[in-house]
Write a structure and sequence with these properties.
The protein is of the alpha/beta class. The protein has one domain: 2-Layer Sandwich (Macrophage Migration Inhibitory Factor). Helices cover 29% and strands 31% of the residues. The strands form three sheets. A four-stranded mixed beta sheet has the order 2-1-5-6, with helices on one face. The chain has a two-stranded antiparallel ribbon with strand order 3-4. Strand 5, helix 2 and strand 6 form a beta-alpha-beta unit.
Length: 113
């Protein structure tokens, strides 16, 4: 039950959004027990972002997951996401933050898991 929310300063025309959706769907599989089958993705582009006191091309990715993961799996996903954002949007990994949030309480389909 993962959710990925991407906020970026870059524009996200349909072709880029589709490429990001596909790439994030592949990247989530780097976390054991997670897959695109239950992945929800939110993409927000054209957002003014400031980093180190300056306006920059940047990205903030929030990955929320039901359950707990291992640090090395999160590291692998961070590397994959940074490569994806650099390839598709030209955003340097140094201007990308990735936040992971784990929870034992997750609601879906009218109930909680």
């Amino acid at each position: 039950m993962p959710m990925i929310a991407l906020t970026t300063s870059a524009s996200l025309p349909p072709a880029k959004a589709e490429a990001l959706k596909s790439g994030l769907g592949q990247a989530i599989a780097l976390l054991p027990g997670k897959s695109e089958a239950h992945l929800m993705i939110s993409l927000t582009g054209d957002t003014p972002m400031y980093f180190q006191g300056e306006a920059r091309e940047a990205a903030f990715l929030e990955v929320s997951c039901f359950g707990h993961g291992k640090p090395e799996a999160y590291g692998n996903m961070t590397a994959a996401v940074c490569r994806l954002l650099e390839k598709e949007l030209g955003i340097a990994p140094a201007n990308t933050y990735v936040k992971y949030a784990e929870t034992t309480n997750w609601g879906w389909n009218g109930g909680n898991l």
